[in-house]
Every structure is written in C-alpha cells, then in structure tokens.
Design a protein that fits this description.
Length: 261
C-alpha cells in the first residue's frame, strides 16, 4: 500500500504512521495508517475494490492498477483477521487504515545475543589478518580494529593471505569470499592445512555479502569457523573477535590455538 501511494502521488506527500494500542498483556494491536495527496479514489471505486466479486473493477490502465493492488492488499488483510478502511475522494488524496493483532513474546524467551562482547572488553594485541580485494573495505575494517588495539595486516587476495600465513602467525583471519587470483574458500583450506613448526591454525571468519542460503553454504565449508554479513555492525564483529580472544588467551595474555565452542 505504501508503494501504491508513492506510485500515484506525483505532487505532495506520502506519510506512514504506526501506533501501538495496548492489548491484554498477551497480545498487542498495531495500527497502520498510510496517507497520501495523490489522485484519490471515488466512493464507487472504493466499494468495488473492497468487494471485488460484487462488480467489475475499472479498466482504465492507471485506475485498474491502483484498485487491483488495493484489492489484493484488502484480501491479505482479511487473512490476518483485519479490515482495510479507506477515506478518499478523487483528486484529494487517500488514507488507508488497518490494524493487526500480534502475540507478545514472553520475556523469559528473549536471550542476550551471545556474540555481543561486554562494552569495556579489550582485544589488545590480537593478531588479525584482513583479506579483501576492495581497498575501501580494508580501510574501513582496519580503522574499526584500530580502535580496539587490534594488530592488523592486510592482503588483497587469497594467495597473498596464504603467503603471509607462511611467514607469520595470526590469531584470526577476516576472509572475504569472492576475490581474484584465489578465493576465500581455497585460501581458508590451505591456511588451515599449513604444516610448519609451532604453527597454530588461525580462526577464520568470513566477511561476505552473501545472504540466506548463500550464507548457509559458507558456514558448511569446513575451513570457515564463523561468518559475518557485510555491511556489519562493529559490535557484532567485536563480539566474534572477543570470543576468539577469550578462547585463545594464554597465560601471558597471548592467544593460543584452541577450539571455539
């Protein structure tokens, strides 16, 4: 309905107001109101779109598209136990109002996100390798990590990351997936399998723009320990790094290799 209001309002405004109405302690009623200054709808057409099986919808292209979309929206609202209310007149805009009942979540079922670190947690001297073929992405991540006293290096592709891990020990690698020369999957597999004296495989966190099923595929890859979607919230990333810091922390405060549970 918001999209419809924007489409048919060439001059003026479209406003959306959402108000919560106190329920019975178990439920909450949310009232929605979409108002525009667009082409408006006549009384006759309002009746037609609210009861589409009673009479035919108008067939001029512009009016037909408008009323058809609202008819579908009205039928969907009925499935939610609600009803669409219309206040409108031709050439003077429209107002669409409806309310939906939602069950309230039980407080004991709301958990603190396990990945959010304490606000004063420190990541001093955690050794992180940032791998991304986009220089701007590297700059942003390094600036964020610098605020937490994290020691960072950077690599612009998977092959460079592998070479750097051959000569230096890292605690965590922030690995982009789609890169030229060598992608994040192949690089992660090689890095996890490196054989050299005193080598502890780093924890690898994928930084990827993949969503949905694509993210699930990333997490199925055995050499990827965790995943953060881009764009990410700094505190989310800090939570992931803090887990690594705590799990790897040795007697001298230096992270040591170990499982993340």
């Amino acid at each position: 309905m918001i999209g419809n209001a924007i489409k048919f309002t060439t001059v003026g405004f479209v406003s959306v107001n959402i108000t919560d109405i106190e329920g019975d302690g178990q439920t909450l009623v949310v009232d929605f109101k979409i108002t525009d200054s667009g082409i408006g709808i006549s009384k006759a057409k309002q009746e037609q779109l609210l009861d589409p099986f009673k009479s035919k919808l108008p067939r001029t292209q512009r009016q037909y598209q408008a009323t058809l979309g609202l008819t579908i929206a009205g039928q969907l609202l009925k499935l939610h136990g609600s009803k669409l209310k219309i206040t409108s007149s031709e050439g003077k805009g429209s107002s669409f109002n409806f309310a939906i009942l939602y069950p309230l979540a039980k407080m004991q079922h709301i958990l603190i996100h396990p990945l959010i670190s304490p606000p004063d947690s420190r990541l001093d001297n955690l050794r992180v390798l940032c791998v991304d073929d986009e220089k701007l992405n590297l700059l942003v991540v390094k600036k964020i990590l610098a605020k937490w006293n994290v020691m960072t290096d950077e690599a612009i592709n998977g092959k460079m990351a592998v070479d750097m891990c051959m000569s230096k020990q890292y605690d965590v690698i922030l690995m982009d997936i789609n890169m030229p020369v060598m992608d994040g999957f192949e690089a992660s597999k090689i890095i996890k399998g490196l054989k050299k004296p005193g080598y502890n495989p780093p924890r690898i966190i994928a930084l990827t723009a993949s969503v949905g099923a694509a993210k699930e595929e990333v997490m199925k890859f055995p050499s990827i320990d965790d995943c953060v979607l881009k764009p990410f919230k700094p505190q989310e990333l800090k939570g992931k790094l803090y887990q690594s810091y705590v799990a790897y922390s040795g007697k001298n405060g230096r992270p040591e290799a170990g499982p993340i549970l």
